[in-house]
Amino acid sequence: MAMRLVASGSTLVLNILLARQLGPDYYGQVAFVMAWLLLVVGLMRTGLNNQLTREVASYDERNERANLRGIIIRAYQFAVIATIGAGVSIAGAAIVLDSRLSPGQSRLFLIGLPLLLFLSLMSTTEAITKGFGKTVSGQLGEFFVRPISHLLFVVLLWLPIGFDLNRQSAVGAFVLSGLCGFAVAWMVRPRGPLQALRQAEPQFHDRQWLRDSVAISAVGWLSIVNVQATPILVGVIGGDAEVAHYQIASQFAFLASLMVVILNTLQAPAMSRAHAIGDVVRLQRMASHACEISVVFAFGSAIFFALFGELIATTLLGKSYNGVETVLFVILIGTSINALTGSVGILLIACRLENTMYLALGLALATNISGCILLVPKYGAIGGAWSATASLACWNGCMLLRLYRATGVLSLPLVTRLLPSSRPQPLP
């Protein structure tokens, strides 16, 4: 959790510095390029990392060294091949569409291409490390080294010591931070267990791994597309300045959602245990209490930014970002809705109802895309913020309804206090 807090704080400071120094247009171009690159990395790695961690842990526990070496080899092969394919596709698209992009933006895509390889290799290495039970080491590169090094590189560029902080160097700093993250992930990998595999003849189960990876990755793909769709569509439809307003507002809003992330991480094992023994009363109590804490934090953040958002935006970002506080407030409405339903997603997984998330995420993505198409042309970043908020409401509403129908558990605040006589149904 400490690393996630450090990463969130560093990322916020970094984006404030870039937004203020580059201005809305150039910062918007950088944010647009980064949104595309992170989307591609997410599509390549989301879900696959979870499967890799699971399979490594399983093979290691059963001492199946041949299978273990096989899946590690395949994981790195896929990371390199997928990155080359994605890089060639992005480079080709940037060159072909150069006339439709902002001046110089195609060059930003080309500068950022090495980031795909570094992030892909880093996430693969960390997934393997976590599979061997090294959870902290398996997050060090992504959640500590990369954001800290990125901030340090940007600060060095910003200081008047002979460097220049511009669009190209900002993207270059992102690439270098990815390299640093991968280097640290590689250095802290569990060398002992990996060296013990060198004598094993690798065995490959490509069809089984591919089939499992598709099933595991589906939710992750929908989720990452839904997250990155808004800044991409705001940039495509609204322009550079609008995506800059949306991106910096979303960075502030993430702090309000951090409590939900922390509670979900802390409570997931306990919720799974409560489901395993059929303790539905405890499950309902944990769900309600998590909502109550999240709601206080999220609603408090929304009220705070409603009162002081304009002052904070003007002080930290300058007058070029006039109106960003409105975008932030709309996004915080979505964050509050997310907090209101608490750990509903974790509860679905704990109760083995994760298939519901496919439908919920699909509806949320459709809502987000259609909302952006309808609202962004007229309202810009504010329209994108309303689309993202509607998407969150749709997603959480679908999951909440499915959870209640299947288990009788209401992932809402004050349920155990206002409805003391209600009892959830037996869990499936």
Automatic annotation (TrEMBL):
Pfam families: Polysacc_synt. Its main location: membrane. The chain crosses the membrane at residues 29-48, 75-96, 108-128, 140-163, 169-188, 209-228, 248-266, 287-308, 328-350, 357-376, 382-404. It is found in: Cell membrane. InterPro entries: Poly_Biosynth_Transport, Polysacc_synth. Keywords: Cell membrane, Membrane, Transmembrane, Transmembrane helix. It is a multi-pass membrane protein. GO terms for cellular component: plasma membrane. This is Oligosaccharide flippase family protein.
